[in-house]
Design goal:
alpha/beta, four-stranded parallel sheet, five-stranded parallel sheet
Length: 337
């Protein structure tokens, strides 16, 4: 059986490539119907609009609208339903949260060959399954705003983007919501300009399983902060959207810290970063891994897991729930074309 599997793997790629090449022209024509900002346009908009939140859809979030598991988040039908609902609503239900799509939907010309090939296959085989959730009248932000380094041939843009991210944090009170092994900003200067940094930690794996408790915990603490950074994979996409409807500015920050570490190291491939989760390099730390950094430990306000999750009734955050946005003064209506 193993010999047959080896033969299958050896000859699968040419057939897969030919199949994708046949499908690609029609898929790409459909992709081009949708407008996606550039990476720099997205970060500049965040700097101009002081209440604008960000919810990002990468390949994992998009494929999870159907079936996909990813390394730290198994498929959950409730999470899938929420991801569909947020994407489908766009700005109509929440104009203060910018929904982002992959940079590859705009162009792959500046991407490294491996990344461009990945998106060639993705668009060819998967785009048709979630296209019905998209809006041709909406101008989407760029998901790669938090991933401006590894996937790209030229590295000049990444330095500018990270400098602009630092402007978002400068002189602001920042609350980080992350898996216990993420440790965003630890060991580098990404958050040095913030006036205060605190953290709420949760599960490294399957954070959506404690979503209600996590939502309540962040909602209770966020009133004391100017900005919430969320690094929790697909859970972050939904959480940023939901919290923004309560007047909380949230940035779904994804891999921004790891990308920054890779840029500092001039990495040419996805490398491990000591003491941090790097799912794409096969590193996912245990929940109880000790961090001998006293300052970091003092930053943790609360840890949310199965044992601390609340048991009382929660607000209905199902896909069919209607959440009334809080009033804002931000003029973000221009995201829709």
């Amino acid at each position: 059986m193993s010999a047959l599997h080896a033969i299958y793997r050896k000859f699968r790629f040419p057939f897969k490539f030919i199949n994708a090449a046949i499908r690609y022209p029609a898929a790409q024509a459909r992709v081009r119907r949708y407008s996606v900002m550039s990476i720099e346009e997205t970060i500049d908009l965040l700097l101009r609009e002081p209440t604008l939140s960000l919810a990002r859809y990468g390949d994992g979030e998009l494929e999870m609208t159907r079936y996909k598991n990813i390394g730290f988040q198994p498929f959950d039908p409730k999470l899938s339903a929420r991801l569909k609902a947020v994407l489908q609503q766009g700005s109509s239900a929440n104009p203060n949260c910018l929904i982002c799509l992959p940079d590859a939907f705009r162009t792959t010309r500046n991407m490294r060959s491996g990344s461009a090939l990945f998106w060639f296959f993705h668009k060819s085989f998967y785009f048709k399954y979630y296209e019905s959730l998209l809006n041709k009248q909406y101008r989407y932000g760029n998901t790669s705003v938090t991933r401006p380094y590894h996937d790209y041939k030229g590295k000049q843009l990444s330095g500018r983007i990270f400098d602009k991210f630092k402007q978002l944090y400068r002189n602001r009170r920042v609350l980080i919501v992350e898996g216990s092994g993420t440790r965003l900003g630890l060991g580098n200067d990404l958050l040095d300009g913030a006036s205060e940094v605190k953290r709420i930690t949760t599960l490294n794996r399957n954070a959506f399983s404690v979503y209600d408790a996590l939502f309540d915990t962040v909602l209770a603490h966020a009133v004391n902060f100017d900005l919430v950074l969320i690094s929790l994979g697909p859970t972050a996409t939904v959480l940023a959207h939901d919290l923004s409807q309560h007047g909380i500015r949230c940035i779904d920050s994804g891999h921004v810290d790891i990308e920054y570490e890779w840029m500092l190291a001039s990495a040419t491939h996805k490398i491990k970063v000591e003491g941090k989760n790097v799912n794409e390099a096969g590193v996912l730390l245990g929940e109880q891994t000790c961090v001998a950094d006293v300052t970091y430990q003092q930053q943790i306000l609360q840890h949310v897991d199965e044992t601390t999750a609340h048991t009382e009734p929660k607000p209905d955050l199902s896909a069919d729930a209607v959440i009334v946005p809080q009033p804002h003064s931000s003029s973000t209506q221009h995201h829709a074309a």
